[in-house]
Amino acid sequence: MQQRFPLKPLCLLVLQALACHAALAANPADAADAAADSNLAGAVVGPIQTVEITGRGQSRQVQNINKTDLAEALPGTSPLKVLEKLPGVNFQSADPFGAYEWSTRFSVRGFNQNQLGFTLDGVPLGDMSYGNNNGLHISRAISSENIGSVTVSQGAGALATASTSNLGGTVQFFSQMPSDELGLTFAQTFGSDSTSRTFARVDTGLLNGVAKAYLSGTRQRTDKTKGAGGQNQDQLNSKFVFNFGENKLTGFLNYSDRREVDYQDVSPEMVQRLGYQWDNYEGDWQRAVNAAKGQFTGGVNSLDDAYYSAGGLRKDTLGGLTLDLNFGSHVNLNSTIYHHDNDGQGHWYTPYVPTDAANPISLRTTEYSIGRDGVTSNLSWELGSHTVNFGLWGERSNHTVSRNYYSVTGPADTMVFLSKPFRTDWKQNFITTTSQYYLQDSFSAMDGQLKFNAGFKGMDVAINATNLVGSRAAGTLSAEKSFLPQAGVNYAISRDDEVFASASKNMRAFQPGVSGPFSQTQVAFDAGSAKLKPETSVNLDLGYRFKRADVQGSLAVYSARFDDRQLSVATCAGIVGCPSTLVNVGKVDTKGAEAIAVWKINRELSWFNSATFNDSKYKSDYVDGKNLVAVSGKQVVDAPRVLFNTEASYENAGWFARLGAKYTGQRYYTYTNDASVPSFWLANLSAGYKLKAMGGLKDLTLQANVTNLFDKKYLGSIGTNGFTATDPSHTLQSMLTGAPRQLFVSLNGKL
Which residues, in sequence order, are CB contacts of 527 under 8 Å at separation 6+? Predict the structure, then answer.
């Protein structure tokens, strides 16, 4: 047994990484692949399921996180955090839930969050960035308890994905369907820092054999892990399904009201001088006033070491209606219309703009609004051994963003939507029109042993920017490509062994909003807009996957060429809000290998491992003003070369437990690689007992979660205020410390 121990997990690791590469599950464009996929889902026999190897028979690198993984995570945990166990995925946050949006950092194979694509039930979520212009974060789009599964494509996302930002992979979230049984589902969590999370859902059950629906509500209240203030959220989710014949009408409507007080951004030098527990002054107004006047105490030596407080407010309504029509056994049409409204404000008490002569502090806001409408339509047609998929996506987004200042005279609860500022620095409006189409043919030969797919997509994204106040840029920009090809092949060597390969070309459209080309001055925009090129990438993957009685997994190798990469370079402290500089850093080359292994030790115990080696390097120097920044050959910022995850899962006689640990390698936060944050290990524990019934209750589960089990002190999120070319003094204030050890206890069940 000791001789087999190091060998099997390693094989498994190799295995499952490959499996990831192939699939784009549950997407109309991949109907044929998805059918093959369903035969392998849950291939690990027994009660334990960790990651489903959903790529069997496919030509893409894809993995699926199932409901079991989501259910045993800490309630309220962002599904992005649950994905961190997968190869190629780097996730960081400053809170134990991974839902604090200012701190959330999610990247895949060196592609950061705003270079990936995200959808919920096919509805585009944009790039889910903090100052989003065309979407919203998944933690606001739906309560985590209502998510049924998450599909990750690390390399080539499916052609049908409704995204104009997926240079790298895609993440697709799928909500649970309403239950066929009438009932009430409930969950209550209590824990560290006065955390209380209440979730309740009512299912109608199947009505007259044709319709069913649910309505849920979520209320979460939690204090920050350090400093003063809370991070609170209220949500309402609803969904219905109406079946008529072989056809189906599905709809959802979700609402979120999130209000989170921020942690203070720090630098490595600040952490060394002030400690990991350092935060803003909230609760001590006089100290904030004194600091604004240059009177520092307790190791503080700068205006930017702390502010009085900061926070973010977001209100969202997201809805969609999907009609799924079957025209006989070979033709399917799936069409979705959707609408999204958003109001948001980011608050920051600033000592740089006084309220008046007597009050050296004001409250600075960045204010957002989004109104977007869209439609997606996908047609699948089976023609013998061929499956042809064709689809369209169109969206119109109306986005307004402004920078305002409000008077403050002392400590007060300002976590409310403010109006009537005394000063406005700038205000812009953006109308963005998106058109996208795709065509793909998938066919099989050699009695299904050989499968091949090929197709292309085209897109046109036009932005019309209007400057309403201030000197930021106005004008028009368009990103258009009529032919972005994609192809893949899968060959089954045997019943349990296969190889696959895929290639794709993608484009990321220009971004309106608080960053991007229009965040420059009009002079800078006019001088450079004619030369701007949208970012493009070419992704190549090659892999092998296998399955045995007690071991399965995959291994994949990949490369990506990134052209015309745009970087928004901060020109001052984040709170000052200077116009950024948009820099084209030219080419980036990425090469790497991913592996996954799942070892089914026995019926009760399984062991999951994933490993990633990712080498992302800039290939071109760039000029910032008159200065040459020599970055060719340097590692891409916030792109660790090594990631490793291990997790043991146990379940027997109602008892269950998961113990996992994640290793994140060194990460650079300067383009010249002269400054970095160190590598670290982080462990988490989940354990509990499942009781089938007690009295009138059923499916009762008592669960305990411990995050950061060994209370590791580390720097998690980096780049919160952007990156810089060089930082020899380690004073760039653009990172957040990770959350300390936290304990939570949850009880959930059904009535």
Answer: none
- Which distant-in-sequence residues (6+ apart) come within 8 Å of 4 by Cβ? none
What distance in Å separates the CA atoms of residue 333 and residue 327, rounded to the nearest whole number? Answer: 8
DSSP structure string for 29-83: GGHHHHHHHHTTTT-S-SS---EE-TTTT-SS-EEEE-HHHHHHSPTT--HHHHG
Angstrom distance (rounded) from CA 735 to CA 720: 6
How sure is the predictor about 3, in pLDDT bands with cuts at 50, 70 and 90? very low
pLDDT at 35 over 70: no
- Residue 96 above 80 pLDDT? yes
Token pair, residue 257, equals 């009201």
Q: For residues 344 and 643, what is the distance between their CA atoms, to the nearest angstrom? A: 34
Q: Mind listing the pLDDT tens digit for each residue in 607-650?
A: 999 999 999 999 988 877 778 889 999 999 999 999 999 999 99
Q: What's the pLDDT score for residue 578?
A: 59
Distance of alpha carbon 318 from alpha carbon 341, whole angstroms: 7
Beta partners for 578?
none
Supply the DSSP string of 590-639, one letter for each residue. Answer: EEEEEEEEEEE-SSSEEEEEEEEEEEEEE-S-EEETTEEE--TTPBPTT-
**Reduced to 3 states, what is the DSSP secondary structure of residue 288?**
helix
Residue type, 215: L
Rg of the chain taking only CA atoms, in angstroms = 25
75: closest CA among 747, 749, 661, 750? 747
What mean pLDDT comes out for the span 340-353? 97
How many residues would you count in the chain? 751
**Residue 695: what pLDDT?**
80
Distances (CA, A) of 159 to 163, 173, 440: 9, 16, 8
Q: Name the region of 432 (left: φ>0; alpha: ψ -120 to 50; beta: rest).
A: beta
Distance CA 224, CA 264 (A): 11
pLDDT at 687 over 70: yes
Taking 80 as the threshold, does the pLDDT of residue 28 lie above it? no
pLDDT, mean of residues 258-272? 97
Which residues in 76-101 are b (16+ Cβ under 10 Å) and which e? bbbbbbbbbbbbbbbbbbbbbbbbbb
Give the pLDDT confidence score for residue 634 in this predicted structure. 96
DSSP string covering 352-373: SS-SBTTB--EEEEEEEEEEEE
Element (DSSP H or E) covering residue 237 = strand 231-244
* Rama region for 400: left / alpha / beta (φ>0; ψ in -120 to 50; rest): beta
**Does residue 615 contact residue 88 with C-beta atoms inside 8 Å?**
no
Whole-number Å distance between alpha carbons of 53 and 443? 22
Closest to 123 (Cα-Cα) out of 212, 54, 27, 217: 27
Q: CA–CA separation, 473 vs 512, rounded Å?
A: 10
pTM of the model: 0.91
Mean confidence (pLDDT) of the chain: 89
Integer Cα distance of 748 and 750 in angstroms? 7
Q: What is the mean pLDDT of residues 731-737?
A: 97
> At 269, phi and psi to the nearest 5?
-65, -40
Question: Which has the higher per-residue pLDDT, 210 or 578?
Answer: 210
